[in-house]
Every structure is written in C-alpha cells, then in structure tokens.
Target: DUF4932 domain-containing protein
Amino acid sequence: MKGLLMLMLLVKCCWAQTNNHLRSKVTVAYNVNLETYFFAEKLAVERINDFVFDHKDWNYAHQPIVYYGYLQFKNHANDSTVLRIAQLIKQVKDTYQDNSPIMDYLVNQKEFPATGPLYNSPLVDGDGNHPEMTQVLAELTDSLRKFYYQANVALFLEQNKAFYQGTIAEVTKDVDVASFPALEKWYGKKFPAYKIFVVPSMPITAGADNYRGTSPRIVSPQGFIPSIVMSSNRMLPMQNSLRAYKKFGFDNPEVTHLLTKHEIGHTFVNPEVEKLADQIKKDSALFTVALQKSLAPHYINNWYICVVEHLVRLGEIRTAVAMGNSKEAKRLRKVHIGEYKCVLLPLLETQAKKYEANRQHYHNFKQYLPKMLAYLHSLTPVIIDQQVKKYDELKE
Model:
C-alpha cells in the first residue's frame, strides 16, 4: 500500500509540472495513458509486425522518446501482459486498421494508475459499427494499466520530465490562445474546454514533413470537449541520452497552427455540415474536372469534402479579421487559396460578410449555413472553372 501511495504521489507531481493551462479552457499536456499505450505498442509490433506508422525493426532514432522508450521497456517484450496487449491490438488492427479508436478510449479514462472513466458519460467504440470492440478496448486499458505498473512507466516519465516539459513548451509558444474565444464568437457556439495532447511516444516514419494528428472525442457532462493528439513533427539528430536534447521535436509553428486551429475549426463545422450531407452531395456536378485536379494533391477528392474544407478555412480567415489581425488574414488567404487551392474562398467571404453584418438575425453559423449552401448551389461549373483558372497561377 505504501508503494502504491508513493507511485500515485509521483504521478501527481509529474503531472503538475508537465501540463500548461494557457487559459482557463485551453490546456497543453501529455497524457499518461497515451504514453503508456505507445510504449506497449512498440513492443506489440514485434509480434504483429506493424500498426499505422509503427513498424517492426524500423529505426526511430529521429524520435527520442520512441527510441529510448523502446530501449527502456524492451525487456518486457515477452511478459504475459505484453503478449495479451499484442493480441488485443491485433483485434483493433484487424477491425479498424487504425489505432485512433484506442486513443479515443484512453483519453476518456482517468490517467493511470487511476481506474474508471474520466467522466460519467457513456463510451462507444470508434465508429459505432462495432459494439463488440468496446469490451476489447476496456480489456486493453486494463492490460495497459498492468504494464504501467510492471514496467514502472511512472519512473521513466519522472526521470525524463524535462524532455516532456520541453515538448509542451515548444507547442505552447505557437498556440494562438486568443483564437479559441474568437472562433466561439464567430461560430456562435461554445465548448467547455480544449485539450491539446503532445505525444512524443507516437511513432512516425522519418521524413522532413512527417507528423500525425488525430482528434479524439472526449465526452463530459458539460458537453463535447474538442481535443488534438499530436506526434512530434521535427526530425531530431541522435543524442547519447534524453537529457542531452535541447530541441524536442515539436518546434513547428505551421504544424501547431494547423492542428490547434484548423482541426479545432472542424469541430465547429463538421457536425452541422454532416446534417446536410445529402443536400450538399446533390451538387457534386460542381466538383469539376479542373477543380478535382487542383485539389487532388491535398486529398480533397469529392464535393462534400471540398465544401467542408472551404468552410473551415473560411472560419479561420474571418476569425482573424474579427480579431483585427489583417496580416494573419492575408497570410491565411495566401496559404488556403495559393497553396491548398481552395479557390472558392473569395466568393464565400462575400457571403460570410453578410452573416457577420446580420448577427442579430443569425445568432450562430448553424442558422446561416443553409444560406451559404444555397449560394454554393447557385454556382455553375463555368463559374467554378473560372475561379480555378483565376488562381491557378498563384505560387505555393
């Protein structure tokens, strides 16, 4: 019992010094459950060969926590707990081909060594189509907690606290905290909190532009909490110990902006657009060959996704305008139109200004969305292609 108490105190101490409340509603932190999972997943792929970007026998020296974490825990690779974890991960892999459902489940649980759900809210599996996986995820969580104890994950986290603090600091400096209330005001919708999780233990393959971000669904009594899980996004040269690092793999303003502003923007847009998906898809003829070709490099491959991505980027630009940051609005237009080829944004901005000028009538974006979609419906393939041609020569 004394050992358990000391372990819990250690975890509380570690947590207190490795999270950053940027404002009352915005937190940047690491999550003990996610770190524990990826340490265990690295061992599990020795049995199941690969999972997402985690591959057996690959060198992850560009990710210090992945590399040194494996060295720390590899002696547990044949433990019965790890063998069971590998079996459970294999079931998730065979069902989803993705570990996002695992992350969804884990961030809705109290952090190890505590047990039970984070909030008294019902949990479902990753997509609602596989209810049998809920029990698999629950057993996986229990097995990960055992691994947490057996491998003494808490000690590793405490010993490398400075590295985790470094990852949080690198992300924190690039989070535009003021944009969160500005987004809420522009969309006319509020969320109880925003959580940004740095996960230096999440494997990604080596490459200058490689990184990963996911958006777990955290369900609280106060409502849905938008969240972002971030892998490292800078490749680091190998050092002889974790203590030797002065850079931590998260110093990338462009990626931090994308994941903490653009992806959060999706939480305002997607739920409302999804309700009108059938209506939007009826206008798929507007997704002309020229527009398809322009957007294909950015994985926007149908009219519905095209509309969603335009609306999210529209919100970013107009929020910057509302904040009085004309320089940022100009930068965003250049990025979203010139680089991402969202060439309908200039047209949509004219409609957004009508929304902004009539907020007494349109209290939120949800109420104005039908007007926005009606405007898109009024366009023709000729107008679409004119927009593509007009901005085709903009350099990325």
User: Anything to note?
Assistant: The chain has 17 helices and nine strands. The chain has two domains: 2-261, 275-391. Residues 268 and 363 are 14 Å apart (CA to CA).
